[in-house]
Structures are given as C-alpha cells and as structure tokens.
C-alpha cells in the first residue's frame, strides 16, 4: 500500500507575527517580575501597608539641595500653553496630598496635582512629571501649569530624599552613602520607581482621569525614573524620558562612566575608600551600582528595559554631546527597541539634539509636548 505523504499546515505570516509577539510579551513579563522582586527585596513584609491618601498643603518654601537655589528654567517656561483660556488662574485647581506607599518617613510620597475646573464630567489624560537631582516637585510648576491649560491633569512628586522628603542640603547624598554602607535601601532610581507604581495605583482609582491615557516624563534623574517606571508598569501609556537614558554597562566597559559618577560622586568616593582603592575606577563603579541599584548595569540596563516599554509610545530625548548619557551607549538599546517596535515603528523615536550636553532644552520640552498631544489627545 502506497504511503501517503504527510501534509503540514503552512505557517502563515500572521501566525509567525503572533508567535514573535507572544515571545516578546513573555520576555517583558519575566523582566517586570524580576524587577519587582528586586524592589521588594529590601522591603520587609511587616512594613507593607495599604495605599492611603492624606491631604496636604501648598509648600511655600520648597527644599532645593543646591546652593544657590535655582530660580528660573527657560526651557520649562517655553512649554506650549493654551493661550485662549480666560481667567486661567481662577480656573486652576491645585491639589496637595501624600500617598502612603510603605512604612517609614520615606514611605510618605508628596504629590502636587494641577488641573482646571472645566469639563468636570469628562475624563482627562494625565501626565506625571519628575524632577532632576536636588530639585523638587515645585520646580516643575511651569510645566504643570502649561499642561493643565491644555486640558491635562498634571502631576508631580518629590522623589526619594528630595523636596519634602529631605531634611537638609545633603539628605540625598547621605542616603546614597548609607545605601552603599548598609545595603538596605535603593535611593538611586529604584525606590522612587516603587513609589511610581503606587502612584499608578492611585491615579487609576481617580474618576477624573482616563486610565488608558497616563503619560510619564522627567528630566535627568527624573528621566531615569520615567524610563524605569514605564518598563516596570504598563499603566504608564506614553513615555518621554529627557536626558536620562544611558547604557550603564556600556559606560563601565568603555571607560565612559565619569560623567554619571561625578553627578553623585560622594558614594563612589566612599566606596573607593572602603575597597582600599586610591581612587574611583570601573570596579568601584560596578560594585556601587550592584549595591545601591541591583541589576542596573546588568539585567535591567537599557538594552533590556527600553525594549520592554514597547509597543507603548516612547520618545527618548537626549543631547548629542551628553557626557552622562553618551549617545554611543544607546546603540544597542535603540537597535533592540527598533526591533521590538517593528509592528508600530511610529511609536518609537530617539531625538539627539546636536551640540547639547546634559541639558534639557526648549526644543526637548516642545518635542515632548507634541509627543504627548499626538498619543494622549
């Protein structure tokens, strides 16, 4: 009897795409799970508390860990505003509150929210804004007001050891050193990401916010917070990190770590002494990152966490000459991101402004504004 040849069902393009998409989603879920495990690793179960809200008051004298205090940002003042809003100051609604994200003084998250009193029945898009090192949520007020004038609910927080969560001019620096010494907190990026996950819990409970339209952005340290929060939490639907995205492993391997290290030098200097070194070198840098932000220069670095944001709209804004975020260090993460955004290439873009170092510019502010309007309006 003649043996019949087996017929196999051809694999269609659609099924291949679905398989690739499922594989990508699985990798992303695994990364988020591992990252959440790291965030929880330095939190005692006994310190976990239900998320709660306390009403606050406006801060008349905000804490800046800089001397002299900053007074003006031309870039933020350039943010597009809705010019046709009559009596904007009268319409502006300000909320000051605290979210309790865990036990302890740093578990009290200060939040500032600006919006307008118009369209009370309509759910609106929201954007979270994150400040740079040594500043605070009040510094971001020009951005908050500009976005509020255009119909957004604009939110800012004080990151860990900043603003209302700081006691003096060295609070953040001291927290970094203590993290190296004790290994019990993660003041560089990760603990604030924990707060941003809790903030998303709160924002998605509000009836005035369209829960599918929550954006996140930040400058420098705030750009890193935005990047990692979006990688960890898919409720942040549109993402614009400004002068924050970099390759931590690449910087170590290519001797380009100095710009970032110099921004928080005290912790590296302390580590060098503890390790018996005459000065800061690549080994010191790697050990500090592993201690104060485990995985930052390995499994959670930009080549892995930037693609994990896809397919949500992601705009990376950097200076082409930024020593803290060297453009060469983004070759791999950007290449991998483009692969992960193949189905929706219009959802990903990198803009590196020529001739600009570690500086947020008016162009960056306007590009961010256009990106949010494109995807959230």
From TrEMBL:
This is Peptidase S9 prolyl oligopeptidase catalytic domain-containing protein. It comes from Aquilegia coerulea. One of its GO terms (biological process) is proteolysis. PANTHER family: ALPHA/BETA-HYDROLASES SUPERFAMILY PROTEIN, ALPHA_BETA-HYDROLASES SUPERFAMILY PROTEIN. Residues 1-21 are annotated as: Disordered. It comes from the Eukaryota. One of its GO terms (molecular function) is serine-type peptidase activity. Residues 147-245 form the Peptidase S9 prolyl oligopeptidase catalytic domain. Pfam families: Peptidase_S9.
């Amino acid at each position: 009897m003649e043996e019949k040849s087996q017929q196999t069902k051809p694999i269609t393009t659609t099924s291949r795409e679905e398989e690739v998409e499922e594989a990508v989603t699985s990798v992303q879920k695994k990364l988020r799970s591992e990252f959440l495990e790291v965030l929880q690793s330095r939190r005692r179960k006994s310190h976990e508390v239900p998320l709660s809200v306390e009403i606050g008051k406006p801060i008349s004298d905000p804490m800046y860990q800089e001397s002299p205090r900053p007074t003006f940002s031309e870039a933020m003042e350039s943010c597009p505003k809705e010019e046709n809003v009559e009596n904007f100051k009268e319409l502006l609604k300000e909320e000051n509150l605290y979210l309790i994200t865990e036990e302890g003084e740093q578990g009290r998250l200060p939040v500032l929210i600006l919006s307008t009193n118009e369209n009370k029945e309509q759910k609106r898009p929201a954007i979270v804004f994150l400040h740079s090192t040594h500043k605070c949520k009040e510094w971001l007020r020009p951005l908050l007001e500009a976005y509020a004038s255009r119909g957004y609910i604009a939110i800012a927080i004080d990151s860990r050891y900043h603003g209302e969560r700081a006691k003096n001019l060295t609070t953040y620096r001291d927290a970094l050193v203590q993290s190296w010494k004790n290994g019990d907190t993660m003041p560089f990026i990760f603990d604030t990401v924990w707060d941003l996950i809790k903030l998303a819990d709160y924002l998605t409970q509000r009836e005035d916010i369209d829960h599918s339209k929550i954006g996140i952005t930040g400058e420098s340290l705030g750009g890193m917070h935005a990047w990692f929060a979006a990688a960890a939490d898919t409720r942040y639907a549109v993402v614009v990190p400004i002068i924050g995205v970099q390759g931590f492993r690449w910087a170590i391997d290519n001797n380009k770590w100095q710009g970032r290290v110099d921004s928080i030098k005290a912790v590296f200097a302390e580590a060098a002494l503890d390790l018996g070194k005459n000065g800061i070198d690549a080994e010191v840098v790697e050990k500090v990152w592993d201690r104060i932000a485990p995985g930052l220069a390995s499994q959670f670095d930009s080549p892995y966490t930037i693609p994990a944001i896809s397919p949500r709209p992601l705009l990376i804004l950097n200076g082409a000459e930024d020593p803290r975020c060297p453009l060469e260090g983004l070759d791999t993460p950007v290449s991998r991101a483009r692969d992960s955004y193949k189905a929706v290439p219009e959802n990903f873009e990198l803009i590196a402004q020529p001739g600009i170092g570690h500086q947020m510019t008016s162009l960056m502010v306007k590009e961010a504004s256009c990106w949010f309007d494109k995807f959230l309006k």
